[in-house]
Amino acid sequence: MIGETYYYKLTLASPVHIGTGEVYEPMGFVIDQETCELISFTPAAFLGRLTSDELEKFSSICQRGTVESIQDLYKFMRQHKEFAEGERIAVSASFVRHYKQVLDKPKFKFKNELNQFEIYRTAFNLIDNQPIIPGSSIKGAIRTAVLNSRLKENPQPVKDYSNVNPKFMNKEMARESSTIQRNLLGGTFATDPFRLVKVSDFVPVEKARRKVIYAVDRKKKRTEKEAPSPYQILEIVEEGTEFWGSITVLPAQGSIRKPITIDEISKALDSFYGAEKIREDRELTGISITPANLKEDKDTLPLRIGRHSGAECITVRGHRQIKISPPGIRPPKFSKNGATTIWVAAASSKPVNNSGLQSMGWTILTRLSDSDLAAVKLSRQQIQVEQSKQRQAEAKAQAEKQALLEEQARAAEEQRILKEKEAAARLAREEAEKKKWRSMSEGERDLAIIHGEEIANTQAPGIDPLQIIWPKIEKAGPEHQKALAAAFKKRWENESGKWQKKKCSKKQFKKVQRVKEILGLT
Questions:
Q1: What one-character DSSP code corresponds to residue 441?
Q2: Residue 347 exposed, middle or buried by CB count within 10 Å (0-12, 13-18, 19+)
Q3: DSSP-assigned states of every residue in 311-368
Q4: Are 457 and 472 in contact (CB under 8 A)?
Q5: DSSP 266-278
Q6: Which of 24, 185, 243, 350 satisfies CB 3.0 to 4.6 Å to 10 for a cystine?
Q7: Residues 103-129: pLDDT tens digits?
Q8: Percent of the chain scored above 70 by pLDDT?
């Protein structure tokens, strides 16, 4: 089935976060506190740069498997950030301080902080790790606009929720939503006209700029002091980033009673999101927040996507039931008119005022002409070539590092084998020495000790010949007596102050004279 395909450029007019449930895992990032950047990398590449001792320490931390060990893991990664090579994503100075405070918390306080320190990733391409705008996000926004547009032409009965038990509120709201969509679109699933609308994922025209921000809740009515509220840490794609993709509208089928055209989509986007932008601009200006600048003209269309796009932009006018009570309040309160607060992007978790806060999710959709499309494709091709070169360079560097690691491992193994052989040879020598020592007679051992032979030094260390062996000389047989005397003579001649009368003590010289008598030298 062939349809009409239209190519578009999507320009972000405010920060955008497309939630996927993915978070930055402790083993996959570090914060460079000097440059205020989050460095995202693959754990394998990081671990490949560690020494064996560092790997052993890393492994011991992981094996503990406790909340406290996660804090130690964060600290380990911070201590070895010089090994982190990968995507660099900007963070604020406030976030760096927050990161340091969390890591330096006492262990018993770390668990509570950890629950609020998850960094949610925006949608990304698994191949090149670059952000994308999923087609499902754009299609969902288009669907909301078309439903609101068709509702103007075909108003639907408004359900009365006044007597609905709050316990069943969500169920009743889902039922009404299903009924409205069926009536406005002309059926469900098989007869839903959006089956014929295919939206591609939108990819960056150039390298996308990302940042880690805090999403904070602000009251729409001016107040002297904001009530404490939770915050979220989100990775966003920064305003000004451009994506491109396509929308294909397939021809109507017999079962589709109310088909959708590209013209209807364009008018619906302009009408619905244009009106919602005016409303939100008025609300933001009232609390001193500068609205996003869409820079609209006749060739552009407003579109809002992603997390914190505002409850009004994802619901149908006149049928809204927006929860406005804080978490935990029972029964919950709902509003037909709109939300009482708005989530905005901030540089810190507790902004002191509204200056610098930004609304989220606003984009500009621009139809691409043939020449624009060719330029975008060329730009993408150039990026892909550069990315290919970068991947090849990274692969080469990784291969070289792997070869170096293998060479180091081989050398370490050779060294280990050599040490084992040396240890075995040393053990064999020691055993041979012990065996030889045990086979020697007492007289032979005495002579070895007097001569200071190596076998005596290792098998009978610390024995003083003068104290232990000299007394034996008078009891020894003639031959052994001469051998002992000769051994002492040789030893004392080599020791200063042991043989010559002028240098040795009287007591020692008596022993010298006795040796000379035995040897017949007197």
A1: -
A2: middle
A3: GGGGS-TTS--EE-SPTT-SSPPEESS--SEEEEEESSSS-SSSTT-B---EEEEEEP
A4: no
A5: HHHHHHHHHHHHH
A6: 243
A7: 888 877 777 777 778 899 999 988 888
A8: 94
Q: Which residues lie below 8 Å from residue 494, measured CB to CB, with a gap of 6+? A: none
Give the C-alpha separation, 334 to 8, whole Å.
37
Q: Using omega within 30 degrees of 0 as the cis cutoff, is the peptide bond preceding 331 cis?
A: yes
Segment 431-436 long-range contacts (CB within 8 Å, at least 24 positions apart): 433/458, 433/459, 434/459
Cβ-based neighbours of 304, under 8 Å, separated by 6 or more: 141, 273, 276, 310, 313, 361, 362, 363
Mean pLDDT throughout 343-368? 92
pLDDT digits (tens, 9 = 90+) for 277-309: 999 999 999 999 999 998 877 789 999 999 999
Measured CA to CA, the distance from residue 201 to residue 210 in angstroms comes to: 18
Residue 114 CB: number of other CB atoms within 10 A?
17
Residue 96 C-beta-side C-alpha neighbours within 13 Å: 14
Which helix (H) or strand (E) segment holds residue 8: the answer is strand 4-12
Higher pLDDT, 234 or 329: 234
The per-residue pLDDT for 380 is 65
Q: Minimal CA–CA distance to 262: which of 7, 2, 11, 1?
A: 7
Mean pLDDT over 165-184 rounds to: 83
Q: What is the DSSP letter of 473?
A: G
User: Counting runs of H as helices and runs of E as strands, what totals does the chain give?
Assistant: 14, 16
Answer yes or no: are the C-beta atoms of 21 and 372 closer than 8 Å: no
Tokens 């006749």 correspond to what residue?
A: 298
Backbone φ and ψ of 127, nearest 5°? -80, -50
Confirm if 269 and 142 have CB atoms less than 8 A apart.
yes
Q: How far is CA 332 from CA 24, 170, 220, 446, 455, in A?
A: 33, 11, 19, 100, 91
pLDDT of residue 497: 81
- Nearest-angstrom CA–CA distance, 1 and 351: 53
- The one-letter amino acid at 82: E
Greatest pairwise CA separation for the chain in angstroms: 140
Which among 315, 261, 256 is positioned nearest to 6, based on CA atoms? 261
Query: How high is the pLDDT of residue 387?
Result: 65
pLDDT of residue 381 exceeding 70, the answer is no
Contact 87, 40 (CB under 8 A): yes
- Is residue 198 within 8 A of residue 262, CB to CB? The reply is no
Cβ within 8 Å of residue 419, ≥6 positions away:
none
Helix (H, G, I), strand (E, B) or coil at 299: coil
**Does residue 242 register a pLDDT over 90?**
yes
